Amino acid sequence: xxxxxxxxTKQRILIxxxxxxxxxxxxxxDVAKVWERVLRRADLPILYTQGFNTRPRIQLAxxxxxxxxxxxxxxxxxxxxxIALEGLQETILSVSPQGLxxxxxxxxxxxSPALQQRVSRASYRVRFTDPxxxxxxxxxxxxxxxxxxxxxxxxxxxxxxxxxxxxxxYAVHLDENDHLIADLSAxxxxxxxxxxxxxxxxxxxxxxxxxxxxxxxxxxx
Length: 221
Known about the structure:
By secondary structure, the protein is of the alpha+beta class. It is built from 6 helices and 10 strands. It has helices spanning 3-6, 28-41, 88-94, 115-118, 134-146, 194-200; strands spanning 11-19, 58-60, 69-79, 100-108, 119-128, 151-156, 159-164, 169-174, 180-185, 208-217. The radius of gyration is 20 Å and the shape is globular. It starts with a helix and ends with a strand. Mean pLDDT is 92; it is low at 1-5.
């Protein structure tokens, strides 16, 4: 008998949350651990895997690099019992650590694709804390978007690999407040980090604060 037959998922809930303050320095793995503690304190009937090392059936939509705040993170939670969503947001928030904000909860079909497979893009806002030259940066953005290829070299398993970032960069611009806005590919189609964009614009050494304000989750894949 399979594990899914032994412990079927009775309900799946998506929780949209924000990550601020000291939590922005918490790794994705540790954020998952934070969420496990929060959900247990809220007395949710979390579904766990079977075997020697049991794990909660929870999944984050997309890893968020250290040092970046967010208002659009999404957690997929599988439950072993059905519960009412009314009042649940307040209950979870009451047992959450400082810096963890809860915005929205919704139930999804139990057979929905894995959340990580449905993420397609992420949008960031970068506020520079050092003075910048707007005209110079706009020129670099224009050159970046006009490039046919932007090859990034990286090493994996002691082997050099190459990735063309250009088709994964959807939009980059400076807004009226001199904030850099970037709309980038995310998920299994290819990930572009905001640090990649800043490096291409020769802004890697400029002090800044980055914030993720949107994750696009495809309805079907």
